[in-house]
Write a structure and sequence with these properties.
Blueprint: E1 3-4, E2 7-8, H1 12-36, H2 41-60, H3 64-87, H4 94-129
Antiparallel strand pairs: 1-2
Length: 130
C-alpha cells in the first residue's frame, strides 16, 4: 500500500465509518421511500443501494464548504431519524432517545470527517503519481 505522511493510503477505520454511515443512511432512505410508495423489501434495498452510490459520487466531487454543509445536514437528519425511531416504535424515554441520537450524530460526523481526510489523502497520492 502507498504511504502518505506515515499513514496507509487505505485506512481500516475510515472504511468502517464510511461503510456504516452509508449503510445507515441508505437503509433509512430506502425504507422511507419504499414505505412512502408502498413498495416491497427488494425495492427498498435497490433504492438504498442507489442512494449509497449517489452519495459517494456526490460527496467525492464537492468543494470543502458545500461538503461541510451537506455533512452537517445529513448528520442532523440521521440524528433526528434515530431519535424519532427510538421515541416512536421502540418507545424509549426522551433522555435515552436523545442519547442514542447523539451517538448516531457523533458516528455520522466522524464518518464524514474521516471520508474528507481519506479523499484528501487519495488526491495527494494521485497528484504525486502523475
Amino acid at each position: 500500500m502507498a504511504q502518505i505522511g506515515g499513514q496507509s493510503m487505505l485506512r481500516l477505520r475510515a472504511g468502517f465509518l464510511v461503510l456504516a454511515a452509508l449503510a445507515y443512511l441508505s437503509f433509512v432512505v430506502g425504507r422511507w421511500m419504499a414505505t412512502l410508495f408502498s413498495l416491497g423489501f427488494l425495492w427498498a434495498a435497490a433504492i438504498g443501494i442507489a442512494v449509497a452510490l449517489l452519495l459517494a459520487l456526490a460527496a467525492s466531487r464537492l468543494d470543502r464548504n458545500a461538503y461541510l454543509v451537506i455533512a452537517a445536514v445529513v448528520t442532523l437528519f440521521g440524528a433526528f431519524t434515530a431519535f424519532d425511531f427510538a421515541r416512536g416504535p421502540v418507545d424509549l424515554s426522551q433522555g435515552m432517545a436523545a442519547f442514542l441520537a447523539l451517538i448516531a450524530a457523533v458516528l455520522l460526523a466522524a464518518a464524514f470527517w474521516d471520508f474528507a481526510n481519506l479523499l484528501r489523502e487519495f488526491r495527494a497520492w494521485a497528484e504525486r503519481r502523475g
